[in-house]
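Why do we care about 3D structure at all? Because function follows from shape, and shape follows, mostly, from sequence. That is the central idea of this module. The next example makes it concrete: a single protein chain, its amino acid sequence, and then its structure expressed as tokens.
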Amino acid sequence: MPKHPKAVVLLSGGLDSTTTLAIAKAEGYEVYSLSFRYGQRHDVEIDAACAVAARMGVAQHIVVPIDLRQFGGSALTADIPVPKDRDVEDMGQGVPITYVPARNTVFLALALAWAEVLGANDIFLGVNALDYSGYPDCRPEYIDAFERMANLATRAGVEGRSHLRIHTPLIKLAKSEIVRTGLGLGVDYSLTHSCYDPTADGLACGACDSCLLRLKGFAEAGARDPLIYAQS
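And the structure:
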């Protein structure tokens, strides 16, 4: 195994993916980060991803354009209101309207393609326990199934030259544990952006599910969230 094996990290620019990138680097990987401009209403996260990649010194960062607004079907890619001020208990009930159909499958397929070109055997994805309760493509059984498929679908896999692994280091962690992990690794969370429905000038709304979970995580971790919110 090389001294610094290569890994592709899916980087949205949010709290979870940034923490995942920090973990991959701490584990000694040479990181190649991959982001997507997919027609999301919160495309301010792309600027955050670029800032994170630059600050954390990745080997290469690619932003891939995909227009999932052509399909719609989600509050993130269609003219559907983003839910606000929901109770945390309600967030885990059913699949939320902020679920983007097959998004992680599309993202992981492209990450797989880049990993094969790079000769990387590892892909990191920042899904976590608070997400997979409602999002079908964030659940452990989905990750396991995609990993099996990936090793059947690549030249390196079928020739037996390598075995691709999908790492989900946050999958069993609460938001507070993720925050503590990132702070322990020196993550600058002021660079990140988690809001699903930012204002026209890019401020986090403070009321969508993602903002509320993030704020709860920082509060329970006993830390201050450095992000500026439209609702104080």
